[in-house]
Fold this sequence. Notes:
- This protein is α/β, with parallel strands linked by helices.
- It has a domain at 420-545: GMP Synthetase, Chain A, domain 3, CATH 3.30.300.
- Helices cover 38% and strands 16% of the residues.
- It contains 19 helices and 17 strands.
- It has helices spanning 2-28, 32-46, 51-55, 64-70, 76-87, 119-139, 179-188, 201-212, 226-238, 240-249, 260-267, 274-287, 292-295, 314-320, 430-440, 472-486, 490-497, 513-523, 542-545, and strands spanning 99-104, 114-118, 147-150, 218-222, 301-303, 325-327, 339-340, 348-350, 356-361, 379-385, 393-405, 408-416, 420-421, 428-429, 448-454, 460-466, 505-508.
- Strands 7-8-12-11-10-9 form a 6-stranded antiparallel sheet.
- A hairpin with a 7-residue loop joins strand 10 and strand 11.
- Helix 1 packs antiparallel against helix 7 (179-188), helix 8 (201-212) packs across helix 9 (226-238) and helix 15 (430-440) packs antiparallel against helix 16.
- The longest helix has 27 residues, at 2-28.
- The chain is globular.
- The termini are far apart.
- Residues 106-110 and 551-565 have low confidence and may be disordered.
Amino acid sequence: MMAALRTRLANSLMRQGNQGEARRFAACLADPAAAQQATLQRILQANAKARYGQTYGFGDLDSAAAFQNAVPIVDYDTLVPLIESVMIGQKNVLTTDPVLMLEKSSGSTAASKYIPYTASLRREFHSATSAWLYDLFTRRPKLCAGGSYWSISPVVDVREVTAGGLKVGFEDDTEYFGTIERWVLGQLLLVPADLRRVSGMMNNRYVTLRYLLDRDDLGLISVWNPSFLTLLVQEATTEADRLIRDLREGTLNPPDPMPRDLQHRLAAPLRRRPALADKLAALLRHNGKLLGTDLWPNLQLISCWTSGIASRFLPEMTALFPDVEIQGKGLLATEGVVSFPLLNHPGSALSLRSHFYEFLPLGVECRPLLAHELTLGERYTVLMTTGGGLYRYALHDVIEVVGSLNGTPLIDFVGKDSKISDVVGEKLNELHVGEVLSAATADLPVGFVMLAPEWGQPPAYTLFIACVRLSNDDLNRLVATIETRLRHNHHYAYARDLRQLGPLSAVRVGAQAPDHYLQACEAMGQKAGDIKPTYLHKAFGWRDRFHAPTTKDPHDDRLPSAPAG
């Protein structure tokens, strides 16, 4: 009873605390041009005396046009020398605001990037999360009665610190929120902070499950990758006997050994739940598996990626969570937030009060457009200017305008425009590969699909695919179709014609491919909770990571290969 009252009070406090910023955002919707001009001036004036601001005369720039004329478009590589200066402890480089820490990007398009975080940047994130959470808890009041789960990634053994003494990396997703929100979320989260100290994906999932089953009031789940959650639910079936025994006895015995003191500390608050253990055992006997709604019958909403390739995982999630509402994340990157979702509206709303945005139309050479100049149905790449010291920064995210809210664009994430795989000059772009694979497999029950290069004489691309109801003949036709469409890329066709690149082949991967993908990406340094699904991965060696068969001739076991050309 007391826990339920405490949960309602904490949710009510969070909603009330976010009301002011949500109303300020709503007041901006009808005039995005004015809102964005105010945001730009705030950032420029605050950083006019920083080294970067002095170089480009921030103090004299009084309009978006003046800003565009004076300040160059940059990407991360352009800023590396300045960010390295920040990392060794130099002040007033990109911002007058002190740098509090750096967050390492977990994207797979390049080597790790170190993004400076300032108090201003955190407030800009807070502006978006406040409006989002207020909308969420206002339109879905039943959420106020429940606790929450926000993904927590295992920590590294030693947290990285730069030469200048700056810490690198957030410890969990709640660090995107303001101080009050973080305190309130701390009262609502159903897993302990010590969860981040549980290493190993299987153990981390198991401890997460055990804690989320210790209470009956889980109402909101927030993760990035939808497969992160589906794999969590699948572990409940895989480890059902162990989990049911732990619930019945009030214990915690994960699949793999873990430090005894940590295990005892995590086990201490857990309760005996014999009735739930009996219920889950009966459901397992009757259905042969456990659904997410079997585990958490009061779950109201799941927040996760739903755009781009992530949409492929939604049917599986819907099957595991029938009747549970799923909301997309909007577009949030390590560098900043572009948009956030609003219930009952398509796409996500541009976060007008967070950063200043510009938009480059795809395939058109022109001045970058501003928020109020976008056209419904068109696609753009995003430039952002933030209080963290990124000015006219090319995010390389492609968005499509899918609607409008009182004059403010509603957008959807499409993919990356910078993810290029280029082994011999073929320049395969993830956007093109995604369109090809999505169209070619649209009518197939595909559980996983990804293209990646493999070394050979010559090197070639391999289609890794999980689709049990696809015959070898059908797979052969699928590979030929994909190869033909990839050849629409002139550089790929040229490399194939010169025999610099071998024919496309396919390798069947099992039902555990999404899990193997997550484990491999984590081993390559990405956080478990925010690994992005992709149609195209640039790394070699995926055959081994998927535990696919190998032979002396790297082409012998491919099922099958497209005609040579």
